Amino acid sequence: MPVAGGSKDAALATQLHALLDEYEDRTLALFAAIENGTAFEAAASNKQRPAVASSSSSAHPQEQHALFNKDVLALISDLHTLDATLQHTLHALALPHTIQQHTISALVTVQRARDDARRAQIEKLSAMKAELDRLVKRGREERREAEKAEAEPLAYKHVLNYASYISRITSAPPGYRPPGVSAKDEKAEGSSAAAAAQEQQQLQQQQQQQQQQQQHIDWPFPSEAQMRRGALAAAAAARAAAGADDLGPGAAAAAAAAAAAPRHGGTAAAEAAGLDVQQVPQNFPLPDQHHPPQHQGHYGHPDQQMDTEDAFDLDLN
């Protein structure tokens, strides 16, 4: 009986391939024998001879049939033997295959973890590269600025101008004293602070005077305050004229005398507003003038004055 060749020391994979090849050969031989036996039986049935035929001719088909049966049985026995050997080899391969499968699964898990770690490292390196690029770019810009500053040094005049500009809006916190100041220094600072306060007060007075002078400047167009004063003065003059007509010639003479008085206060505002100076009362107060409440005429009551100003605001709108 032919058995699959191969030494015992050969690898299981080699033995398995040899068994499969032998299994294939025996299967093909079995199907070929079956095909030949079927053809032989068909030919024997078609060529039947008379009963008086010789004994030698009848014995020949029987021998061929016996040989055919012997070959088929031998092939089937070989296939059974190969099948048993193949099962044994597969059982022998099952354990190493399982172990190798677990090993491969563990290696795949490790490989995936390493891929994730490598991807995280690549992303970190990319972020570090971007940060380094920004630092290099910033360093180059600072270097260019430093070289430009060295080539064009800053003049002391620009520094003084900037210091004088920023000193207007910058001051030390309240109650701040430099470290290491003694009591004598505090007294000296107190006297200097008083002198500085006096100078500040004088400066504020000068600024107020300048603002008052600017208010009296005859601009080519009237300001909002001048328009407000002019309109209110015109309304007061109209009411005064109407009251004088109702009271008689004495009140009219008083109004004429008031119109003939020296022009000041509301007259200047009326002239600046472009109104008729003769219709403006001379006692109309300006922002820089302070009169007692009893000499304010029709506007002595603050509520009436506020209502009139609100009405004028509505007219302007």
TrEMBL record:
<keyword id="KW-0804">Transcription</keyword>
<dbReference type="InterPro" id="IPR019258">
    <property type="entry name" value="Mediator_Med4"/>
</dbReference>
<feature type="region of interest" description="Disordered">
    <location>
        <begin position="173"/>
        <end position="216"/>
    </location>
</feature>
<comment type="subunit">
    <text>Component of the Mediator complex.</text>
</comment>
<protein>
    <recommendedName>
        <fullName>Mediator of RNA polymerase II transcription subunit 4</fullName>
    </recommendedName>
</protein>
<feature type="coiled-coil region">
    <location>
        <begin position="118"/>
        <end position="152"/>
    </location>
</feature>
<feature type="compositionally biased region" description="Low complexity">
    <location>
        <begin position="294"/>
        <end position="305"/>
    </location>
</feature>
<keyword id="KW-0010">Activator</keyword>
<dbReference type="Pfam" id="PF10018">
    <property type="entry name" value="Med4"/>
</dbReference>
<keyword id="KW-0175">Coiled coil</keyword>
<dbReference type="GO" id="GO:0003712">
    <property type="term" value="F:transcription coregulator activity"/>
</dbReference>
<keyword id="KW-0805">Transcription regulation</keyword>
<feature type="compositionally biased region" description="Acidic residues">
    <location>
        <begin position="306"/>
        <end position="317"/>
    </location>
</feature>
<dbReference type="GO" id="GO:0016592">
    <property type="term" value="C:mediator complex"/>
</dbReference>
<feature type="region of interest" description="Disordered">
    <location>
        <begin position="267"/>
        <end position="317"/>
    </location>
</feature>
<dbReference type="GO" id="GO:0006357">
    <property type="term" value="P:regulation of transcription by RNA polymerase II"/>
</dbReference>
<dbReference type="GO" id="GO:0070847">
    <property type="term" value="C:core mediator complex"/>
</dbReference>
<comment type="function">
    <text>Component of the Mediator complex, a coactivator involved in the regulated transcription of nearly all RNA polymerase II-dependent genes. Mediator functions as a bridge to convey information from gene-specific regulatory proteins to the basal RNA polymerase II transcription machinery. Mediator is recruited to promoters by direct interactions with regulatory proteins and serves as a scaffold for the assembly of a functional preinitiation complex with RNA polymerase II and the general transcription factors.</text>
</comment>
<keyword id="KW-0539">Nucleus</keyword>
<comment type="similarity">
    <text>Belongs to the Mediator complex subunit 4 family.</text>
</comment>
<feature type="compositionally biased region" description="Low complexity">
    <location>
        <begin position="193"/>
        <end position="215"/>
    </location>
</feature>
